[in-house]
Amino acid sequence: MKVTISRSKNRTIYYISKSIRLNGKSTTRTVEKLGTEEEVRERAGGMDPYEWAKQYAAELTRREKESGEAIRYSPTRLIRKNAPQTINISYLFPQDIYYGLGINELCDTMTEQYSLPFDFNRVFSRLIYTRVIYHASKHGTYELSKNFLEKPQFSEADIDRTLKFLSVTPLTFQRQLYQKMVSSHVPDGRLLFYDCTNYYLETGEHDFVDSRSFGHETPSTPIIQLGLLTDANGLPLSFDMLRDLGAKPPSMTSLEHEIIDNLKPEQIIVCSDAGLTTIAENKFIYDHDYRFIHIESMRKLDPALRSYAVNVSDWHIANRKRTYRIDQVDEKKYFNTIFYKERTLMIGGKLQRMIVTFSMSQQARQRWIRQRQLTRVNDIIEASDNRYAGQSEYIRRLEQEEQLDGFSVFFTDSDLNPQMLIPVIRRRREIEENFRTVKRELRSRTLNMNAREKLYAHFMICFISSLIERIIEMKLHDRYSFSDLSDVLREMDMLDIPSEGYIPIYSRNDLTDALHEAFGFRTDNQITSGRTIRRICVGTRKKNNLSHKK
User: Fold this and answer.
1) From CA 34, how far away is CA 5, in angstroms rounded?
2) 314 within 8 A of 341, measured Cβ to Cβ
3) When you count CB atoms within 10 A of the terminal residue's CB, does the N or C end of the chain come out lower?
């Protein structure tokens, strides 16, 4: 081994290196970075830094000969100070799509056009990646970005500036994003779905006590209604905040007109919660052939229909002929499966289909939410000197409704088969979870915006992350839902071995194999060199990734 020195204008760095043969060629590999000249002088204890480094290299050579291998780790040597030992590389997958869609170019154009004093793309891309992987709020973006291989090159104040800018360029940003998207990923416009959903805001401790809906940790009055337009494959195309409280009835936005005129869909299906039916359908009641999907509350369902819905017999799985009893299926095998049953009813003089779905994963999540709510309600009652003691009946009702967990019911006049409709409902739940408005998103002490502006910035980030999530699902041929993927992405950490490379410390499985095959790079070799990882990073930032990786 030998000492090598790297000199620049401002500092001198010492390394221990050795000559090796690689692929039939002679090359030099760094064994250890000793540090700057000042750091080496401190370790040398008064000796000349270069002479001490030569002696240290000779000692490593001697040990290597005695043991037959290089000694790079020691129980007496401390790890690097203030240097993370692991990095997360899962952001490379959404980054590949983000750049493939050309969102970086859109951000760069905005930065130049509006003379922004910060790099809009650097900040906005991290808001998207952390939302996709961690479902993080803006408050968590900066810290979570430090987990990535490429560290954040912006300040927390730049995040606030980015959100402020997003809120004042709503339709412009969406229209340019749509134009970028269709140039690399053509939507399936045979059928369009328009989804209208309520989103809520927690306003205080009483929300958990007075709310009647265990599915939302929210008060009974929504702060906003959101409309989301998707193509036949569930690819998000545009969104619109339908109205604030007291605003006028909604009408189609110019972008929605543009999308529908361009795609010329055979049919538009309006999907909404029962209370939003009129609001959603008013947008398409003229000049468009539309059908509806109404999501109904199991709790409010007619008792006879509810009894039919929760009956454990005569359930189906898409593309299978046999029927199932949901109380006798293997929970582990069918945990993420959606079962369904349907019947035809005459409602208001119109023939409608009632379709009921059941999901064990949805059941588990609703019970987790219910238990968390009950815990918080009980804590509030105890802390308020029994001021809310009268809510005990409400608590008992929540507990009794546990039998409805996992079930969903919707009514439709569409003649599409369940195999087409059920994925829409599943994706609706996932998108709704992604868009969920929580108190910390809307109450920022450092961001001086009104509620609508805060909501728009939040929803724009959720919209683009939902778009990227859906494209990832499609690249995996819909074999996995993004709820399956998100847990895997969060675990994709690698151990940083200085001068050697990166070792995966996550579990390789069928899903990680599918991800790597779909995106054309691998991070699951026993060790990946730093040069290879850097090449992968550069590759995910190339233009038009989607056009050549479909």
Assistant:
1) 10
2) yes
3) C
Q: What is the pLDDT of residues 18-77, one digit of tens each?
A: 876 554 567 777 888 888 888 888 888 888 989 988 988 888 888 767 654 444 566 777
Residue 169: other Cβ atoms inside 10 A? 15
What size, in residues, is the chain? 550
Contacts of 112-117 with CB under 8 Å at 24 or more apart are: 114/165, 114/169, 116/161, 116/165, 117/161
DSSP code string of 238-295: EEEEEE-TT-PPP---HHHHHHHHHH--SEEEEEEEGGGHHHHHTTTSSSS-EEEEEE
Q: Where does 294-402 have alpha helices with state H?
A: 303-310, 331-334, 360-383, 392-400
- pTM for the full model? 0.72
Helix (H) or strand (E) holding 15: strand 12-22
Show the 3-state SS of 467-479. HHHHHHHHHCCCC
Please name the residue that has the structure tokens 């959720």. Answer: 462
8 Å CB contact between 456 and 253:
no
Confirm if 219 and 202 have CB atoms less than 8 A apart. Answer: yes
Q: Which of 265, 196, 251 is nearest to 432 (CA)?
A: 196
* 54 close to 14: Cβ distance less than 8 angstroms: no
Q: Report the distance separating Cα 124 and Cα 369, nearest Å.
A: 31
